[in-house]
Specification:
Blueprint: E1 6-9, E2 16-24, H1 28-35, E3 36-37, E4 52-60, E5 63-73, E6 84-91, H2 93-105, E7 109-110, H3 115-122, H4 128-138, H5 143-154, H6 156-180, H7 190-220, E8 222-228, H8 234-242, E9 260-266, E10 269-275, H9 285-299, E11 303-309, H10 316-324, E12 329-335, H11 345-353, H12 361-371, E13 372-376, H13 385-396, H14 412-433, H15 438-456, H16 462-470
Parallel strand pairs: 1-7, 8-10, 8-11, 11-12, 12-13
Antiparallel strand pairs: 1-2, 2-6, 3-4, 4-5, 5-6, 9-10
């Protein structure tokens, strides 16, 4: 670990009311003391108490740079657990850069990306899961995502992982002790006891993995692609959900040729909406490219909104669209219900069943209930949108979201580590069923323990640590 003093601008690189230059390291107070002058020129930052703030000026030699407020936080009670000084200055880009250059001139170096948070981790103030939550807070896209990230920063994930690891290491220690001292520690009846404990651990692992379904939605949002024939009302739907005229709407078919992307908020989660070109057979080169892109986006979507003009009979283009949605969560909006209907729910359902990969009618009905919803809407009259919003919540959020004691796995790295731990515990279960020697249990228990350790940073390589913090912004 590098122990020299680092500095960076901790606020956005844009003109604003206030900017902050952060300095951390053993010499941070003495470096800033060289360029800071109090109003009466008598105060020395090296002599002030920790967690105090001081009015004054920043100078480079005799050149006045800015009027500032300087916060002093001494180790170990700071974000990095090192001596830290934050210079609160005016938020102009030029003045912030000038102060940073001066701090570097007097002994600091420019911080690397994420180095302040990395030092907090390496100094033991936070574990790796909590460090990653810092970046998740910064990039939160919704209220749910923010609450989940704040809970992780407070240690919700870390606490659960540490508790599971403690139970695993207890069993490892017991097995090893019994093998080393069989005269005093008996393993009689222990396989049955360990089998029950392994089942309990697997249930906790499974609960965490199930939470990752909600976690992904909370963190990243739902990749939502709007499909339909030209003039079905796709762009009108996008405009209605966004609340402004983002897409051109006319009675001319094929108006949307390229991809339009917008984000909307429903029940605290984000829908990353993609409006695509109307799917139909066309000789127009530009429109044809748009249709190909629509098909490509649909293949990677979490949710497809299939907009159907209920006043026009289904045709080959609808057949093509329905073939795209057979393995996808889909909400079909039976649009233009203000007009005389030609297409009904029953007609649509019969079409959909042709493409469902199920064996019998009963399973087809089940697939329709869970995977495909049909809602009558009119973007003209603004009807059915509330039903659409509820359908999204029911389809994607597994139960109500509560942040009181709920743990959500939102990080793919964490999910993979939990899956590895679960697989190792399944091997323990298999060894118990096959009546294998006790040292087999110990090996797989240790593997589960190590996998979970990578989440909080206790079983992690330097390369992985560097990779994680390289994704942070400079100044954080």
């Amino acid at each position: 670990m590098k122990t020299d003093t680092i500095a960076a601008i901790a606020t956005g690189m844009t003109n604003s009311g206030i900017g902050i230059v952060r300095v951390s390291g053993e010499d941070s107070v003495s470096i800033v003391n060289k360029i800071y002058r109090s109003k009466n020129h008598k105060k020395r930052l090296s002599e002030v108490k920790s967690h105090t703030i001081h009015y004054g000026f920043i100078y480079d030699g005799e050149e006045l740079i800015d009027e500032v407020m300087v916060s002093v936080m001494k180790a170990p009670n700071s974000f990095t657990a090192e001596d830290t000084v934050e210079i609160n200055c005016h938020g102009g880009v030029l003045v912030m850069n000038k102060i940073l250059e001066t701090v570097i001139k007097y002994g600091a170096r420019t911080a690397e990306a994420g180095e302040f948070t990395k030092r907090a981790f390496l100094n033991g103030r936070i574990d790796l899961a909590r460090a990653e939550a810092v970046m998740d807070i910064i990039h939160s896209k919704s209220e749910f995502a923010l609450k989940s990230s704040v809970n992780q920063l407070k240690g919700s994930v870390s606490k659960e992982i540490k508790d599971i690891r403690e139970k695993i290491i207890y069993e490892i220690a017991f097995i090893e002790s019994a093998l080393d001292d069989p005269e005093h520690i008996s393993l009689e009846g222990y396989p049955e006891e360990l089998s029950e404990k392994t089942e309990q651990l697997l249930k906790r692992i499974d609960k965490l993995l199930q939470s990752s379904e909600n976690g992904k939605i909370l963190k990243e949002g739902i990749q939502t692609v709007i499909l339909g024939k030209p003039n079905a009302g796709k762009s009108s739907l996008l405009n209605l959900l966004v609340g402004e005229e983002k897409a051109i709407v006319t009675n001319i078919a094929g108006t949307t040729r390229d991809i339009l992307e917008e984000s909307i908020f429903l029940h605290g989660i984000v829908l990353n909406m993609i409006d695509t070109a109307g799917i139909r057979s066309t000789e127009d080169v530009v429109e044809k490219i748009g249709v190909e892109r629509a098909v490509a986006y649909a293949s990677n979507a979490d949710l497809i909104l299939y907009v159907v003009d209920s006043s026009i009979p289904l045709d080959e283009s609808d057949e093509q669209i329905i073939s795209l949605i057979k393995e996808k969560n889909t909400i079909i909006l039976l649009n233009k219900t203000d007009l005389d209907a030609v297409v009904t729910e029953e007609i649509l359902l019969e079409k959909i069943k042709k493409y469902m990969s199920y064996d019998n009618k009963e399973k087809n009905e089940l697939a329709y209930t869970n995977q495909v919803r049909i809602i009558k809407t009119s973007t003209k009259d603004n009807t059915g949108i509330d039903l659409f919003e509820n359908a999204v919540k029911e389809m994607f959020l597994k139960g109500d979201i509560s942040f009181n004691d709920e743990v959500f796995i939102t990080n793919m790295r964490h999910k993979e580590a939990i899956m590895d731990a679960g697989n190792s515990l399944l091997l323990v279960k298999k060894s118990l069923e096959d009546h294998m020697p006790e040292d087999f249990y110990s090996i797989d228990l240790m593997s589960a323990y190590a996998s979970l350790g990578t989440i909080i940073g206790e079983e992690v390589s330097d390369d992985l640590v560097n990779e994680i913090f390289s994704k942070f912004c400079i100044g954080k």
